[in-house]
Amino acid sequence: MVKKAILWMHKWLGITSGIVVFIISLTGAVYVFHDELKLQLYPEKYFLTSSSAADPKPLTELVQIAQAALQPDEKITRVDLYPQRDRSWVFRASETNERAFGHWAYFTYYKRVFLDPYAGEVIAIENSKNEFFQLCLQLHMNLLLGKTYGHPLVAYATLIFVILLVSGIVLWWPKKWKGKALKKSLQLDFKVKWKRLNYDLHNVIGFYSFGIALILAVTGLVFSFPNFKKAYVDTFNSVFPTAYTLKTPQQSKSTITAHYSDPLDNALAHLLLHYPDAGMMSIRLHAHDNPSIDIQIRMQEKRSGVFKWYYFRKKDLGIDKIIDSDKLQAGDKLASLNFDVHTGSIAGWGTKMLACLASLFCASLPVTGYILWWHKSRKSKKRNRNVSAITQA
């Protein structure tokens, strides 16, 4: 009786959320390798034709060059730069309308300006609103409907998917853990009819993808529900306090050497000097009256969870604090690694392949599930027609 109720719930939750789960799973599988694919597909944007031995021009000068390449109302708000001598620097300009419906209305504008930081020359200007991987990301996050309308659909579909995964394992669970019953639950027999093969595909793929799919779904919930994120961060911080209490973010009152007139240029020059092998650095450009400068250093280009975050005082070039990802409390550490886990970049190519394959498996589950439902619905209608014919006769 209980299993029958779980099956009914599993069926109707799957029917209502299946299309959304299919979309976010398929786009997730593509986006796993977006960093690598961008470098292969757009090498002229991300790589310089020749490396330079000179120092990069001051950042404030480069911002002015990038700003001049855009429309007057398109403001540079972020810079992603790479210490490697053969890489361009990327200047982002974006503005969103949170309440707008649809992707193209949600982004008022979104441009990326690629610069040679040594020559101070514009390499390319990208309308990122229409760029393929950005479209994949927005389709994954909000179905191209805008944040207000699409984000809740994705969030609750992900929550339903977690329920489907758990209920699916309950329904999959073999009555006997031996013989043919166990074999059918773990292996595919391609000699059976297609209807039976579709049923087995749904069960077997669901079982083998369960663990990784659950991790991907739960890390998705962290992005979807801020209160869920806060709850688990606070929980892990309180449950494992001793492991990290002595490793609070470093406090440094030292000052840095001034080579330029603008504090931002001095702060960046200091970090480029001390972290020449960093994967990338990211800078949010704040208002001029903001008293501080913050620069994130990603120690590995494709890992957002391994970083040092510097906070400088503009008035005297003092370093207020350094947040080191290795010295976070347990809950904060997990939160910082959430993107790396969600995209599979946590341990390189191996985990990326697992995340990609698991996402493709997840995309197949609504398809095989819909086929199951469609076949049983047809069978049920046929049975009802036969009963009706017999009754009338």
Automatic annotation (TrEMBL):
Signal sequence segment: none
Membrane spanning stretches: 12-33, 153-174, 205-225, 346-373
Keywords for this protein: Membrane, Transmembrane, Transmembrane helix
Pfam families: PepSY_TM (PF03929)
Membrane listed as a keyword: yes
UniProt entry tagged with the keyword Transmembrane helix: yes
UniProt cross-references to InterPro entries, sorted A to Z: PepSY-ass_TM (IPR005625)
Record-given protein name: PepSY-associated TM helix domain protein
